[in-house]
Amino acid sequence: MSINTQHNLFISRCFDLAKLGIRNTSPNPMVGAVLVYKNRIIGEGFHRQYGSDHAEVNCIKSVKSEDHPFIKDAILYVSLEPCCIIGNTPACTDLIKKLGIKNVIYSSIDPTPGVNGKSKYLLQDNGTNVTTGVAYKKGDQIVRYRSVIARLMRPYIILKFAQSVDGFMGVNDKQVWLSNSYTKTLSHKWRSEVDAIMVGTNTALLDNPRLDTRLHYGASPLRLVLDRKLRLNQDLNIMDKSSPTWIITEKESSKSKSDNLKYVNIAFDKQLIPNVLEELYKDNKGILLVEGGSQLLQSFIDLNLWDEARVFNTDVLLKNGINAPKINRLVHKTWKLRNNELQQFFNPM
Ligand SMILES: NC(=O)c1ccc[n+]([C@@H]2O[C@H](COP(=O)([O-])OP(=O)(O)OC[C@H]3O[C@@H](n4cnc5c(N)ncnc54)[C@H](OP(=O)(O)O)[C@@H]3O)[C@@H](O)[C@H]2O)c1
Fold first, then answer.
1. Residue 21 domain boundaries
2. Which of 44, 56, 81, 193 is catalytic?
3. Which of 199, 202, 342 to mutate to test the pocket of ligand 1 (most atoms within 8 A of CB)?
4. Residue 56 designated active-site
5. pLDDT tens-digit profile of 65-101?
6. Rounded to two decimals, what is the model's pTM?
7. What is the DSSP string of 271-324?
8. Could you tell me the CATH number of the domain that includes residue 62?
């Protein structure tokens, strides 16, 4: 096996491990690490939960006692630059120095202020060999949401909707189903991977969505709905207090509140969406999924406040209705999902 193949193989294992932390690590990044001695993995770990031990620490903790003597001569592979700052946990560069690990290889730079490439030089000053940028395109993809959070100080925003073959996402005054059972389950999986999910007032009224993850394992995200004039009825599913919910309004509410139902007062002016994002950021919510309707999605597009869009093109013909928003970017990837097509778009930072 060539040295490059070997690096790619072990970094690829780090990516797989990193992805096991999806949702739970946000707003921190997903990270995976493996420790390799003479081509044998002697330890591996990933960042499991926001605020808890980093991947490198879990990797070292997993090493069996008989392999401890090999740690310092092993290669530490990490999907992301090890941190060099003390946050919720100690700096991983200090751990690497303490253990005397002589070779560190990672894929992407950690965009966190204070880190951002600095660890390489700190480790090199300590005599550690550092190789960076292995499979960085894939690595950067895994750390993409963290880059947005760290650099733009707002959640990573995913727009999601389904449209008819003639470009409508719904009809006036009644609910229509565009998704198939497969895309519906996939949408619930996506909900389990985000911190918050948001809909507009008309969608809450017409579709009465529950915005939960009942078709897939994983916790339901925080639900957000716009309700400027408090016209949403308490009988709607979104009001059922089954999961934490924010009602964004400009009116004072006298309605019953609970731990799971919060009225958030924000002015409905040009700053509405940025202010909602700021509230989410302050509450450590790292990933927001916007599920419609058309007006709400269009507001995010007009403000250029989105990072990724996932659009289901269905074979349903509606002939008239509510126009679906237009995503003004080239398609990144397309998948065929039975009679639906999924298109993914990215909006560069
Ligand atoms: N195909 C899909 O994937 C999908 C997904 C969701 C919904 N839908 C369909 O979409 C339709 C609803 O879409 P829609 O465009 O009519 O409604 P919407 O975006 O769900 O809600 C629009 C209302 O929400 C408030 N709102 C939204 N964005 C706002 C902003 N930036 N600033 C201030 N207020 C804002 C306003 O309420 P006020 O008027 O009270 O101010 C506005 O009238 C329904 O037919 C639904 O079935 C389809």
1. 3-149
2. 56
3. 202
4. yes
5. 999 999 999 999 999 999 999 888 889 999 999 999 9
6. 0.95
7. THHHHHHHHHHHTT--EEEE---HHHHHHHHHTT--SEEEEEE-S---SSSEEP
8. 3.40.140.10
